[in-house]
């Protein structure tokens, strides 16, 4: 019977651990804050921000939301960002995606101090992560690696296939798997013979944003399935209804990668707070 890689339960365990770590910071008179910037009124983004803020409160970190109008300019956001970079109590800063196309997303991400880049989207953070150095990583990619590590899934020597090449998930998780000594193939919309490639994988990471895109017949018996998708109807990017029983372990949708992504944002925020207030 396949093992369920329960991200919801694991995220609660991590939150409990983080709560104790934050208590050590607040006991010394410090009040760590997480700044979340959101642009526009996208319903899904507002929902995600609310979830992140509630989770932040649960562990004792004060969340601050900066809500910009849909017509806000890059310069307006950068002005606020500069103030946040200079605020010692703001230990973490993140920009909720997606954002309107007229905003220079890369300029904003790269203007976040690497020491406060708790969502891991700064170019400097990405480069350090790729080299295997200590750095904040994109939260969803880190959540996948944490699930694999915490459930003691063997990575070294395994063949991993990542479907999706986004800068916030496909690319970073591929590099992190490689750094853990997996052999990695990155697939995408232009990949030829995708089912054949996936059928050889010991670990399949699906991050394409298409419901039930990965079919059960593509999955090798005993493979580990990490479904990082979340689509309308509470379904992921893998046909888990039929594929789960073929696998040795899988992340459910919902309750897998999603809750862990927020937990990793919080963990990196606590690490930033510890560096700012305890380790100087």
Description of the structure:
- The protein is α/β, with parallel strands linked by helices and 280 residues long.
- The protein has 2 domains: 29-114, Leucine Dehydrogenase, chain A, domain 1 (Rossmann fold); 139-257, NAD(P)-binding Rossmann-like Domain (Rossmann fold).
- It contains 10 helices and 9 strands.
- The protein has helices at 7-26, 43-59, 74-86, 105-111, 123-130, 139-150, 170-179, 194-198, 240-243, 257-277, and strands spanning 3-4, 33-39, 62-68, 90-95, 159-163, 183-187, 203-206, 224-227, 249-250.
- The strands form 2 sheets. Strands 1-9-8-7-5-6 form a 6-stranded parallel beta sheet. A 3-stranded parallel beta sheet has the order 3-2-4, sandwiched between helices.
- Strand 8 (224-227), helix 9 (240-243) and strand 9 (249-250) form a beta-alpha-beta unit.
- The longest helix is centred in the C-terminal third of the chain and has 21 residues, at 257-277.
- It is globular, with a radius of gyration of 19 Å.
- The model has no long low-confidence stretch (mean pLDDT 96).
């Amino acid at each position: 019977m396949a093992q369920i890689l329960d991200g919801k339960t694991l995220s609660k365990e991590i939150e409990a651990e983080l709560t104790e770590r934050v208590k050590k910071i607040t006991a010394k008179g410090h009040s760590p804050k997480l700044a979340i910037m959101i642009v526009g009124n996208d319903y899904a983004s507002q929902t995600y921000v609310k979830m992140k803020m509630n989770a932040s409160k649960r562990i004792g970190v004060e969340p601050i939301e900066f809500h910009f109008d849909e017509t806000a300019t890059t310069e307006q956001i950068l002005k606020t960002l500069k103030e946040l970079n200079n605020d010692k109590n703001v230990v973490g800063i993140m920009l909720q995606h997606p954002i309107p196309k007229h905003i220079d997303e890369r300029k904003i991400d790269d203007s976040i101090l690497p020491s406060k880049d708790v969502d891991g989207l700064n170019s400097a953070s990405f480069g350090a992560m790729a080299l295997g150095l200590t750095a904040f990583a994109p939260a969803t990619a880190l959540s996948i690696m944490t699930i694999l590590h915490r459930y003691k899934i063997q990575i070294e020597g395994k063949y991993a296939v990542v479907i999706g090449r986004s800068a916030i998930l496909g690319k970073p998780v591929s590099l992190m798997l490689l750094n853990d000594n997996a052999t990695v193939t990155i697939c995408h919309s232009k990949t030829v013979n995708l089912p054949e490639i996936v059928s050889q994988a010991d670990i399949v990471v699906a991050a394409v944003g298409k419901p039930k895109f990965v079919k059960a017949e593509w999955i090798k018996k005993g493979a580990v399935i990490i479904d990082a998708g979340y689509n309308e109807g509470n379904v992921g990017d893998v046909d888990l209804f039929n594929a789960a029983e073929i696998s040795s372990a899988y992340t459910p949708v919902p309750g897998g990668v999603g809750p862990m992504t927020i937990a990793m944002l919080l963990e990196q925020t606590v690490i930033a707070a510890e560096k700012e207030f305890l380790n100087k």
